[in-house]
Specification:
Strand order of the largest sheet: 16-15-17-18-23-22-21-19-20
Strand content: 35-45%
Number of strands: 34
Distance between the termini: 40 Å
Oligomer: single chain
Shape: extended
Number of helices: 14
Length: 675
């Protein structure tokens, strides 16, 4: 309490005594004992009343006991029932929950994980994938700066994500092994590498990685099938020392459309798990390729990134030509990218306008906007000879084509000449400019159409940084490459725009969620959120038909379909009340990634425990594990003092006490005739 406040309290006490003395003793004719009682009541009531007006802050210290946190991570994937371990996992968890000593010494938190980490409510063991690394990383972040050991209940078989063996965990990890620990002979088709697209009557490469787990020398045959017909076969031999082989071959594209293939290896004697002996893949055969030309007067990292991102889709090829070497060959290309044009682009731009070619213009610090403004390209910029950094803002009302927000506002800014942008015709802005935290309505990326000519503009250089940033955020270039692909697909298309577009994959593993999205526009090609869309799915073998409505989510119609059996399916998406439909197909394979393992990965879990300072336990070691945790002196309860401040005026009891004192004084005076 401050010195000033203490001084005020002393003064309040003296004033209260003085006022009470003046009322009951100063010039009093008699000094009856009752006056002492009244004097006391008056002094305390006045003092407390003034004290409320001063309103001092009262500090109190409370001691809080903080127990260490015990995070229990339970593998909820379908590999647990594959090893028949569901009941063992539940029994182990029950022993943890019912141990009073453990709950007295730890704050126990239960989590389930498969693809993602979730707070444990119940166990389903239906997860289609296992990401142990992601689960451990999430718990480490959740319990940062805490003393929080981790119990990891799993078979150790991870199917997606970074290798958890090398995780840098701040917390001690105690793996508990569930699953068969006996090793069996096993052959496995580990991976198939193939391009998603090929051209009609062309050969495309296929690379298959085969693995063997065993000590004996075995011989078998590897084959590739298409429509149940063998199109490639080769004898293979494995041993303890030669336990992996890479098979490469070239297959011929004979049929346009989506073609399904199966890479398979024959089982060997005494092989327990044959579900991992085959793997399906698909190739879409097309009859033409989109050719794109990049014209530039400068060398810049953006050019390489455009080529890399565009060619990630094998349906597209990119050629880069310096503007000085341009020889008027635009007719060979479906899209022209004009990178930072200047007056050297005069001939190229004239040909673009005369041929009505689709183009994407990218400006930057070396762009000559005076030259561009004279070309009458339906957009202009009143620029000055000074550059500015423009960050991106995702425009949620952009509806020309479907593009999700991939974290544009987190990407580094693009650089361009400073100035105001103007359009002379209707356009759609995918991204808007943010200048030093100030959101504007000026475009950063725009698209427009003019007499069947499609035009895109990126107002800024440095998009190579976006690809790097996207990779740092997601550990993948996929989101960025798909964003560039969506932009290129729209700008390069020479077809009449369809009012209904549908997106789906060609191949899904067993038990996967089938995600299908649709984009529907009105007659003016503006997104129509009033429509009702329905999908009809037909199993090509059983002819079973399923009809489901699509839901409107984030400016797209979407549906997630579960519990479809393996097989080939055709589907039709229809707009109810309109004669507008779109057809497609997909295949659900028998391949279940969680059933590709023959035993628990004890070796990797042992290395994890050693690196994280813990110890490996098995499913029957519950008592041993609990004893280890209770006797470990690193896990202790700490007392944390908490200082709380409270204003005296918040104490309602004091106000009640003041009223009681004043009431008592009034009744005493009334009783003795002092009123």
């Amino acid at each position: 309490m401050q010195t000033t406040t203490i001084l005020y309290i002393i003064i309040a006490l003296l004033l209260s005594i003085a006022a009470a003395y003046f009322q009951y003793f100063y010039k009093a004719k008699s000094k009856a004992k009752i006056h002492i009682l009244l004097f006391t009541l008056k002094t305390f009531s006045l003092f407390l009343l003034i004290l409320l007006l001063i309103n001092p802050k009262i500090k109190t210290t409370e001691l809080e006991n903080i127990k260490p946190t015990l995070s229990v991570l339970v593998d909820d994937s379908s590999s647990i029932p594959f090893f028949n371990e569901e009941e063992n996992v539940k029994e182990f968890i029950s022993k943890l929950k019912t141990n009073n000593k453990l709950s007295d010494n730890f704050t126990i938190e239960f989590f389930n994980f498969s693809t993602n980490l979730e707070i444990s409510d119940s166990l389903s063991f239906l997860g289609n994938e296992t990401n142990i690394y992601k689960a451990l990383t999430a718990v480490n972040k959740l319990n940062d700066n805490k003393n929080a050991p981790i119990l990891l209940l799993t078979d150790g078989n991870q199917t997606i994500g970074n290798d958890y063996e090398f995780i840098n965990s701040k917390q001690t990890i105690y793996p508990v092994v569930f699953g068969d620990t006996t090793k069996y002979k096993d052959l496995k088709v580990s991976q198939v590498n193939v391009n998603k697209y090929s051209y009609i009557k062309n050969k495309f490469p296929v690379e298959v990685i085969l693995n063997y787990d065993g000590n004996e020398t075995v011989q078998t045959r590897f084959s590739i099938f298409c429509n149940r017909k063998m199109i490639f076969s080769k004898k293979v031999q494995f041993s303890k020392d030669v336990n992996s082989q890479i098979i490469t071959t070239n297959l011929t594209s004979t049929k346009e459309g989506v073609n399904y293939y199966t890479a398979s290896i024959q089982k060997i004697k005494d092989e327990k798990n044959i579900k991992n002996n085959s793997k399906n893949f698909s190739v879409e055969v097309i009859d033409e390729q989109t050719k794109i030309l990049i014209l530039t007067a400068v060398l810049h990292p953006d050019i390489g990134v455009f080529k890399k991102a565009i060619e990630s889709n094998k349906q597209r090829s990119v050629e880069i030509i310096m503007i000085d070497k341009f020889k008027n060959q635009l007719s060979d290309f479906q899209l022209i990218i004009l990178y930072q044009p200047n007056n050297k682009f005069s001939v190229a731009l004239n040909e673009v306008k005369q041929s009505n070619s689709n183009y994407l213009l990218v400006s930057g610090a070396n762009t000559d906007w005076s030259f561009i403004n004279k070309q009458q390209l339906d957009f202009s910029k009143k620029s000055i000879n000074q550059t500015e950094n423009y960050s991106a803002i995702y425009n949620g009302s952009f509806l020309t084509f479907l593009q999700k927000d991939i974290g544009f506002n987190q990407f580094p800014p693009l650089k361009d000449k400073f100035g105001e942008i103007a359009f002379s015709r209707d356009h759609q802005d995918l991204l808007l400019q943010n200048i030093n935290g100030l959101q504007t309505q000026q475009p950063l990326i725009s698209v427009l159409e003019k007499n069947n000519q499609k035009i895109g503009v990126i107002f800024g250089e440095g998009i190579w940084k976006w690809r790097a940033s996207s990779y740092l955020n997601t550990n993948s270039f996929q989101d960025f490459d798909q964003f560039i692909g969506n932009l290129i697909q729209y700008v390069s298309s020479t077809k009449k725009r369809n009012r209904l577009e549908v997106n789906s994959e060609n191949l899904y593993p067993a038990n996967a969620v089938i995600n299908i999205s649709a984009f529907y526009t009105d007659k003016n090609y503006q997104f129509d959120a009033r429509a009702s869309l329905e999908i009809t799915i037909t199993n090509k073998e059983t002819k079973e038909v399923t009809k489901l409505p699509l839901s409107l989510i984030n400016n797209a119609y979407q549906i997630a379909i579960e519990n479809l059996s393996s097989g080939e399916y055709g589907f039709k998406v229809a707009v109810l009340g309109q004669n507008i439909t779109k057809y497609g197909s997909f295949k659900i394979t028998d391949y279940q990634i969680e059933e590709q393992f023959t035993h628990a990965n004890v070796a990797k879990l042992t290395k994890l425990a050693s690196k994280a300072g813990g110890e490996l336990f098995y499913k029957n070691d519950s008592e041993k594990l609990i004893k280890n945790l209770l006797e470990n002196k690193a896990y202790y309860t700490i007392q944390k003092p908490t200082v709380k401040e409270q204003n005296l005026i918040d104490w309602k009891l004091i106000l009640f006490f003041i009223v009681s004192l004043l009431t008592a004084e009034w009744f005493v005076r009334k009783y003795y005739g002092k009123i």
